[in-house]
Amino acid sequence: MAYTKRFDGRKTDELRETSAKVGVVPNADGSAIFQQGDTIAIAAVYGPKILHPKNQQNPEKGVLRVHYNMLSFSVGERIKPGVSRRSQEISKVTEWALAPVVMLEELPGTVIDVHINILQANAGTRCAGINAAAMALAHAGVPMKEMISAVAIGQMGTTIVSDVTKEEEDYEEDGEKAATDIPIAMLSNSEKITLLQLDGQLPVKKMKEVLEAGRDACKKLHEIQKNALKEYK
Amino acid sequence: MTEKKEKREIVIPGEIIASEEFLPGDWTMKQGKNIISTRLGIVEKSDKLVKVIPLSGVYIPRYGNVVIGEVKDITTAGWVVDVKGPYQAFLPLRECPGFVEVSEMENVYGIGDLLVTKIFNVGRTSVDLTMKSRDRSLNKIREGTIVTVNPHRVPRVIGKEGSMITLIKNATKTNITVGQNGLIWVSGEKVESELAAKKIIEFIVENTTADGLTEKVEKFIKDLEDKK
Amino acid sequence: MTYKITKKSALKILAAGKRFDSRGMFENRNIEVKFGVSNKAEGSVMVKMGNTQVACGIKMGVSTPYTDHENEGTMMTSMELLPLASPNFEYGQPSIESVESARIIDRGIRESGFIDFKKLCIKEGEKVWSIFVDIAVINDDGNLIDAGSLAALLALLTARKPVYDEKTEKISFGEFTDDALPLNKDKMPVTMTFFKVDDHMLVDPTREEEDVCDGRLTVEISKPGKEEIINAMQKGGEATFSVEEVENIVNEGTKIFKKLNSLIETEVEKFEKEGKKKSKK
Q1: CB contact under 8 A, B192 and C21
Q2: Which of A34, A116, C23, C117 is deepest in the core (most CB within 10 A)?
Q3: Which range of residues forms the domain containing residue B86?
Q4: What mean pLDDT, rounded, does chain C reach?
Q5: Which helix (H) or strand (E) holds C4?
Q6: Where in C150-240 does DSSP place strands (E)?
Q7: Do the Cβ atoms of A73 and C44 come within 8 Å?
């Protein structure tokens, strides 16, 4: 049984219904909400601001700090509030996904705090988080060379699909896990990859197809981010 | 298509805004054969130069700006002041008018005091302030209300040659000092008039993109007065 | 943080019995309610009070009961002051502010008998339902206890139990039944915090106003019969209250109770109507 029809009826390269909005947290210097299907991420940026204590300052360039957090009620079984090993790792890879385009060298000695909270989770939370964070950074007036968009590409059996759901993440063939999850973040102009992770089993020769699907999806996501930012008043 | 002339389009970071025939100005950069924006803002092109005027973000200190800052700390060399930018600002003892003994510093400007002050030097990661002015416009704030606004909206609050500020002052019978960093000091005989001025300022900030802003503000003021 | 001179102005105006944004002393800001902010939660809501914004989600689980209440379900309330919501909130151990707020909200719900804990028993002494009431602050502009409590009530009232298989003793998360929680709606406790500045009282302060207040008195009132009942109280801050002041607060409290009670009723009705529309499709 090959995965020819997606569980939710989408075409293989079709994204879930996506929406975005900036300016959702009035206290923050920049903020955005990003919804990808049933996954909702909200991001707020504080800064660039003075970094305390002083010994953590970098006189060469600014510091970008990302804090990713899933709200306790964003998933099926409640998660205990607070930092987990998983959220620590995602915070770090998100930081690395965003940092290459943030012109930190223009902001020596400062810090930019990015807080990402997941309100509702149905796979691809780190990607929705990156999409929201990139918009929040732009909204906060942080100088950036390009925008960043992210998507989870999946391999279901042998089929490559874009923007996987939780149901697809758990896809099985003959009683065995047959899904591979590949979150990708890509820059809007240079199309360089700033986040790449993989869990599962992907034949080497398939990598090209995966990256092309990622590029195609990120282009569409970038349009959504762009339109929402342009509505800023 | 005539609309386009009026409505200036917002650009986002990474967006191509001109070809390489232009020179990249503020908040733009060359990327391959194009010039791109590095901020969320509005494009301004002159003969050969293209620049982006940012719409959002924290205050970036500039030489000569009059700002309002809060005293955070006192050292023997001067006062540490928060002017809302990405860097701590410093007011050296010698930039305080008159002679001040180190032991008296706290009484001159104490922690938590707000100052109308001027930026006289911007370094790589530092900002220096002065309180010396010919017209004595730089001073400690003793009473009033502070309204905090997006610093990029400050020019609209001031208006052409200060027309908007004059309008608010006259309508509310208050004194208003606008810091370029987005802190606005309003003082009046009564707190009520300060709060009325605050409301008008907030209305302006929310409607900066509206056409005929002055008329809208005049109407808003009239409605406020009628409510009384 | 509110500036020193703004505090002085705020103090002046509040001490004259007036508000910073020209509201009445016992007048709430505009309240906006949006249900279903997380479809993973058994019940969820976003509540806006002016610029204060809080989300609340109800999650359920199955656990063993406490030995002194073998036939009763359990409840836990938490409140997170997310650093997203304010430059003054930080990561790390929950602050005393968040712990105290959650405990106050928890007590009102528990003491009023709003939740029928006995009906949350699956097998006496072995298996009971546990309810987690998790409140997350999204933007702080004052009065977080009342906003959090209102969100908690709305989320509880609209929560639906998940599917539970008694044989396998497992919950199928994400699959919901039509069963609401066992609530005694007539016993619903509404939380109102009265802030004191000088000799004046006010409700629903903005952050600027709250920062100049000397203290607060939280009252949680329900009306199970003809009479209003106080289910929980908490004095916070260093202010002192006279006997007359407390009496006055309780009396004003019954008036605000009425308003908020009918707001909750209207919102829950709207939610249920929309739910019926959806299920008909």
Answers
A1: no
A2: A34
A3: 66-141
A4: 93
A5: helix C4-15
A6: 160-165, 170-180, 190-197, 200-203, 215-222, 229-237
A7: yes
CATH assignment at residue B211: 3.30.1370.10
| CATH code for position C86 | 3.30.230.70
Domains of chain A: 18-230 (3.30.230.70)
Strand ranges across the sheet with C190-197: C200-203, C190-197, C215-222, C229-237
Is residue B141 less than 8 Å (CB to CB) from chain C?
yes
B101 and B162 in a single domain? The answer is no
Say if residues B52 and B42 touch (Cβ distance below 8 Å): yes
Among chain C residues, the shortest Cα distance to A31 is held by C84
Tell whether B187 is covered by a domain: yes
Query: What local confidence, expressed as pLDDT, does residue A1 receive?
Result: 62
State the total domains in chain C.
Answer: 1
Q: What pLDDT does residue C12 have?
A: 86
Q: What average pLDDT does range C174-180 have in this prediction?
A: 92
Q: What is the pTM of this model?
A: 0.93
> How many Å is the Cα radius of gyration of chain A?
18
Say if B98 is an interface residue toward chain C (CB within 8 Å): no
Q: Give the Cα-Cα-Cα angle B210, A225, A18 (nearest 5 degrees).
A: 115
A219 at B interface, C-beta within 8 A: no
Residue B196 lies in a domain: yes
Residue from A68, A78, A139 whose CB has the most chain C CBs within 10 Å, to mutate: A78
Mean pLDDT of the region B143-162 = 93
Residue C119 carries which side chain, given as an amino acid letter?
Answer: K
Q: One-letter amino acid identity for B61?
A: P
ipTM above 0.85, yes or no: yes
Residue B10's identity, in one-letter code, is I
Judging contacts by C-beta atoms under 8 Å, the chain B residues touching residue A230 are 9-10, 12
Per-residue pLDDT reduced to its tens digit, A100-141:
999 999 999 999 999 999 999 999 999 999 999 999 999 999
